[in-house]
Amino acid sequence: MKTNILVVDDDKSIRNLIRVYLENEGYGIEEASNGAEALIKIGEKLFDLVILDVMMPVLDGISACIKIRENYNMPVIFLSAKDEEIHKIQGLTVGADDYVTKPFGSMELIARVKAQLRRYKKFNSKPEDKSSITIDDLVIDFDAHEVTVRGNKVKLTPKEFDILECLAKNKGIVFSVQKLYETIWNEQFAVSDTSIVVHITNLRQKLELDPKNPKYIKTIWGVGYKI
Predict the structure, then answer these.
(1) 50/29 Cα distance (integer angstroms)
(2) What is the C-alpha to C-alpha distance for residues 5 and 183, in angstroms, rounded to an integer?
(3) In angstroms, rounded to a whole number, what is the distance separating the alpha carbons of residues 7 and 33?
């Protein structure tokens, strides 16, 4: 699967330059012109890394990074013309993984991107290798493909299990309907498709004591779902 990178900068020429550099390395690139636009895109699609300019209109990079870190742990590389030590410290303090100062060379940027992706994939492969996850009285056994809740086995369809597995392995991360669909089905989402909503409803009927007040699969209104 192609590695997806979001490039966020209010300077279109900078975005175009980075796109050329990274597409030549085989990465999938999407762009945003400010932090607010970036947050919308991140809520709609899975990204493996974000390159984030510090100084932008509407929502600056520092504020955007704080918001990103509330729900996501992909690497964030700050990009800025400011090379003073205080700005680097501020960027790293709010959750950035690296800091590149403008002007930058193609080799430097590519090397930093690859280093962050290697580190991210290395440290995020371990939780997904777990044979089971326990969340309160919900137990998901990935090897046996079994789910028990309050000590009782629950029969799930393959897609219901896949959705539950995806949310459980990314506990605390909000998935939009589009992002959840594209992760599970591995194909482009159609706005009219209600498959995810139907499966979530069925999962709640099977897992929750009170499906209207779910304990496990939470709805984040206007955003998506999370465990």
Answers:
(1) 10
(2) 16
(3) 8
Beta strands 76-80 and 49-53 are: parallel
Provide the pLDDT confidence category of residue 128 given band limits of 50, 70 and 90. Answer: very low
Are the beta carbons of 200 and 175 closer than 8 angstroms? no
132-226 CATH fold: Arc Repressor Mutant, subunit A (1.10.10)
pLDDT in tens, 50-89: 999 998 999 999 999 999 988 888 999 999 876 666 666 7
Contact partners, residue 136, CB within 8 Å, separation at least 6: 215, 216
Q: What are the domain boundaries of the chain?
A: 4-127, 132-226
Question: Of 151, 164, 147, 148, which is closest to residue 199 (Cα–Cα)?
Answer: 164
Q: Which residues pair with 102 in a beta bridge?
A: none
Give me the count of residues in the chain.
227
State which CATH number among 3.40.50.1000, 3.40.50.2300, 3.30.565.10, 2.40.240.10 fits the domain covering 4-127.
3.40.50.2300
Joined together, the tokens standing for residue 114 give: 């690859």
